[in-house]
Amino acid sequence: MARPNAEPGPSVSMLNEGDLIGRLDEIAGQVAEFHRRSDHRELVIDRLHEENARLSGGLSKAILEPVVADLIRLHDEVGREVRRLKAVGQDERLLRSFAEDLEQILDRCGYEVFTAEPGDPFDRQRHRPLAVVDCHDESRHNTVAEVTSAGFAERETGRVRRPVQARFYHYVPASEPARDGSAPPAQ
Hints:
The protein is an alpha+beta fold. The chain has two helices and six strands. Helix 1 runs antiparallel to helix 2.
């Protein structure tokens, strides 16, 4: 039975085996070329996506940088005021809650707060010495005497944004007077 409006051409039965193999090889080549191009496009798309994500992250970080710097400075000021209020016997709880709020905001910006304890050894990567405190105990040499400001590190990379600011002990032999002019302890 003839198909209406069918294009004339060789019927499958009229093609010899060699022609069929040739046409199948041609189709297989075209499919392989399609897959090669498709794989290449996927690689390009993936590379562009990675670059876009990297640029977006850098842009966000660049935009947030001044805000983060100001938040850290505000955190320091609130911390100093908390210590002052506590030293004079006033209630510092309200201001301490503001400092905690600032820490949460910095956390959402990708920064973690870290600190040090008195007696911790000096760590060049995580500490910034603001002053030295003379001491006659050699075991305290180059250890934290007092933390004045917390440090901040990027959560994602661990890079220290701002080191802990502190005063550190400096060993002075008992036979020498301390730099603050006090006499060495009696023996």
